Amino acid sequence: MSKPTAAPAAMTRRDYAWHRMDTDKNLMVINSILLFEGAVDMERLISTIGLRLPNYPRFTQKVVQRRGRPHWVEDDQFNIAQHIKLEQMSQEVSREELQGHMTRIAHLPLERDRPMWHMTVLDRVNGGHAIVFRVHHCITDGLGLVHVLNHLTDDNGVHGRTPSPVGHPHRATVAQNAVCSAVVRGVSWLKIAFHVARLSVLWPDAPSQFKAPMTGAKQLVWLPPLEMDRVRAMSKRMGVTLNDVWVAAVSGALRQYLGERGQRPDGRALRAAVTFNLREKANAFQLGNEFGLVAVDLPTNVDDPCVRLRQSSERMTAIKRSHQPRATMAFLSIAGCLPTALQHFALNLFTSKGSVVLTNIEGPGSRRYLAGSRMTDLICWVPQAGKLGVGLAFISYAGQIQLALFVDTDLVPDPERLMTLTYDAFEELELATRAAPAETPEEAADAELANARLAASR
């Protein structure tokens, strides 16, 4: 099967840091599952992916050292059949059984002598089929992965060999990113250095069962999706963002979970590493990693859900206006220059400051079709690094929000309970925000203006 051939390209230090971040307890792999209606047509599926995915060179390249520097080099032995595997089920697979399959697959490291991605197709899932799509984080981040997914799929069931030209990686042009160009020019390096130093001397996070030693035994769970309109209505009632609602709901769930296990929830707040995109959406076709991690004190020690939501919003807004996201992105670039052992030491130092990872991914806004099959659900799990063993993610898709949890089972032995509590926390917030005093038109306008300015600054 013919494919475009890309010249070797130097790997960014940031992506190389992700490439070397795998440990026996935490694989740096983005795990996702795509659920589809109807039976799978493997010939059509492989043909579609084989024609479209190589439009992104990273998916046909492997990482090779050249003159002491890591490079993306075309894999001369690339064979699409080695990356797409059909697992035929003997009977219809339930959600619990599917979670078991996902958990088993998530423990498998990706082959490092070939392009670092893989698809496992399960043929009898919920009356249709499923694709487990695994991509190493060194290839791309969540925003880049959504761009790839949009390119692989169509907006209707009339399947053609040629993908839509909209956003095609061969036709896209680079948009100027004011944030990243400022970093490149060195305008803000003093502030970035200050934030790197500040993060390095933060006290380790509050002791809890989430900070216990990890074994590397993982489990992935999810629940039925939430309707986007419900969550959006909460954010509008309180003049906050969707991400603020997510942070507040997770805070409530973690508080309840620890309280049920006899740990004092009103003590010191837990800290989370929250992903923060620093890339222009138009540049997602370039793949790679352009995001920072911000250290957020979650209001887990606050009982009132509306107060939790307001505090979440205030803290997220303050951090977004700071240089902390760029500082952590710069830290990853620095880590990619260090010897591997020193990189792991620095990463462990940083990750000891938090207990959980939170990720919010904006997925496709409308229904998508792959090889003629309608995609019904999209679920994604965030990997954890260093000493972190609890990751919560939400991804939007076609008017729904899908919650997902990826944990080390020595830290969370009953992840289904934590997932249920997260779902319950959204319902608690919904009731509480309905009862909260309504914003005045002036307050609503001020909040909307502040969010618009913040979005423009990003």
Automatic annotation (TrEMBL):
Its EC number is 2.3.1.20. Residues 436-458 are annotated as: Disordered. It catalyses: an acyl-CoA + a 1,2-diacyl-sn-glycerol = a triacyl-sn-glycerol + CoA. Residues 21-245 form the O-acyltransferase WSD1-like N-terminal domain. Residues 288-429 form the O-acyltransferase WSD1 C-terminal domain. The keyword Calcium does not apply. NCBIfam families: acyl_WS_DGAT (TIGR02946). This is diacylglycerol O-acyltransferase. It comes from Duganella violaceipulchra.
